[in-house]
Amino acid sequence: MKGGYLMLVLWVSFFLKSEERAKPQGIDDCTFKGKKLYGRVKLVEYASEADIKVKIVNSFPDLKVQFVGSFPDECGQWKIVDSNEDLKVYITESFPDIKIQAVTSF
Q1: Phi and psi for 30 in degrees, rounded to 5?
Q2: Three-state SS at 20
Q3: Angle value at C-alpha 62, between 26 and 27, nearest 5 degrees
Q4: Which of 23, 39, 60, 102 has the highest CB neighbour count under 10 A?
């Protein structure tokens, strides 16, 4: 009985640790590497120009993103711009910093 309980405790602790690793640091406060994850966003052509690399997914995102035309002042609201950006984003299929899902509303 004790062996089964010990295995359960070890399994739960491993699961919790893997969940902590699965989510990138800073997403909870809507930042990543000191950059806010809302506001005016410029899509860049090269990964070296980007503040953050994202992968667009249909499920299990790190951040849900709503594309807006004005007032992108809540977490996950992005207004796509060509200049005066708050955040530069590179879209990739491999090795993203975070995964995003486009939504129409929160």
Answers
A1: 65, 35
A2: helix
A3: 15
A4: 39
